[in-house]
TrEMBL record:
PANTHER family: ABC TRANSPORTER, ATP-BINDING PROTEIN. SUPFAM superfamilies: P-loop containing nucleoside triphosphate hydrolases. Residues 33-48 have a biased composition (Low complexity). This is ABC transporter ATP-binding protein. Residues 52-284 form the ABC transporter domain. InterPro entries: AAA+_ATPase (IPR003593), ABC_transporter-like_ATP-bd (IPR003439), ABC_transporter-like_CS (IPR017871), P-loop_NTPase (IPR027417). One of its GO terms (molecular function) is ATP hydrolysis activity. SMART domains: AAA. It comes from Kitasatospora xanthocidica.
Length: 360
């Protein structure tokens, strides 16, 4: 029988076979504090508490495809950082460079304060990673896959292995299915098992590439809860997603990619605030309200059954009360009046002029 992983990318990383498509077994003990070694010159910046930092990070594949183009990323320690972008926008390529799986064409990256890919051997033991699906052995049970991962980690005490494995299985909701062969697992179960392997040890950084891919809505909720828990324990989480609502629900910070370039990064609240909210008027007098709003330069009006909404343009402090008074003055029965907060999707569309067109 061929003992080959049933899923996952087994590309040889710079740090040795299998070093980053799974939570890297540690060749050296995991330090408890971030390294203070100097980042490479081009990635160097004033000492910062960024767990990931890139400067002009670029990847052009041999066929000429520019997958990542001059990326400057800063992931603050303690954040749950969402790396957001439609399919093909360069997220996985960036993560593969960060984890030392592929070398950049130009630019530089530091992870936990150390240059990648040069420091892959010292950095990866401090990182739990789940990239492009977990590399699992189909002929082993879920539990035995985890035992194997744990046994490959020289820092993991064999006497406490069973407890670590059971805790990890429990955290991802796989205790009941732990005795099944991994090849009988659904995609979602494989994804959970991969996450469990990334959670065997506490890590400073957890890197998850599309962690909810293949999960049903309940499974997605569970993984998001888990991500919040891990973050609350002090681990910085960097997760890629093409799901805007996922990022809004779990992330404190986000970066938005489009066609290999960084569109914007910041806290999720800041990003959503860049999206202008829509003015919403609830009224039975929809047609009249729309006329008044149009006369006051509210654009993109969308009339509904008992509401009309539109883009209010630049608002000064007095604009909203003035608009409301104008509606009332025109005999519109105003049952509700206010600005609805913009979403990340609005921000993305406003920033790129593109729809966030992704497969769900
Ligand atoms: N090994 C490769 N050789 C050539 N082109 C590649 C390679 N890997 C990725 N690309 C291309 O680089 C671009 C970015 O791909 P990447 O997988 O990084 O995007 P992504 O945002 O992760 O998308 P997805 O969510 O679909 O995985 C795409 O156009 C892709 O086709």
């Amino acid at each position: 029988m061929t003992q080959a992983p049933v899923t996952g990318d087994v590309t040889e990383p710079a740090g040795g076979p299998g070093a980053a498509s799974r939570p890297a077994p540690a060749p050296v003990p995991a330090p408890t504090a971030p390294s203070t070694s100097t980042p490479s010159a081009s990635a160097s910046a004033p000492a910062s508490d960024d767990v990931i930092r890139t400067r002009g990070l670029t990847k052009r594949f041999r066929g000429g495809q520019l997958a990542v183009d001059g990326l400057d990323l800063a992931v603050p320690r303690g954040s749950v950082f969402g790396f957001l972008g439609p399919n093909g926008s360069g997220k996985t390529t960036t993560i593969r460079m960060l984890m030392g799986l592929i070398a950049p064409t130009s630019g530089a990256a530091t992870v936990l304060g150390e240059s990648m890919p040069q420091s892959v051997a010292t950095v990866l033991p401090r990182v739990g990673a789940l990239i492009e699906g977990p590399a699992l052995y189909g002929f082993l049970t879920g539990r035995d896959n985890l035992v194997r991962f744990d046994a490959a980690d020289p820092t993991a005490d064999p006497r406490t292995r069973r407890r670590r494995v059971d805790t990890a299985l429990d955290r991802v909701g796989l205790s009941a299915a732990a005795g099944k062969k991994a090849r009988a697992y659904s995609l979602g179960m494989k994804q959970r098992l991969g996450l469990a392997s990334a959670l065997l040890q506490p890590r400073e950084l957890l890197v998850l590439d599309e962690p909810t891919n293949g999960l049903d809505p309940q499974g997605m909720r569970e993984i998001r809860t888990l991500v919040r828990e891990v973050a609350a324990e002090g681990t910085t989480v960097f997760l890629s997603s093409h799901l805007l609502d996922e990022i809004e629900q779990v992330c404190t910070h986000a970066a938005v990619m489009s066609r290999g370039r960084l569109v914007v990064q910041g806290t999720v609240a800041e990003l959503a605030a860049r999206a202008q909210g829509r003015l919403v008027v609830r009224t039975p007098d929809v047609a009249r309200a729309a006329e008044v709003l149009a006369a006051h330069r509210v654009t993109a009006l969308v009339p509904g059954e008992d509401r009309v909404d539109g883009e209010p343009g630049v608002l000064d402090e007095e604009a909203l009360p003035r608009l409301c008074a104008a509606l009332v003055g025109a005999g519109v029965r105003v049952h509700g009046f206010g600005l609805e907060r913009g979403t990340l999707e609005d921000a993305f569309v406003a920033l790129t002029g593109e729809g966030f067109d992704v497969a769900g």
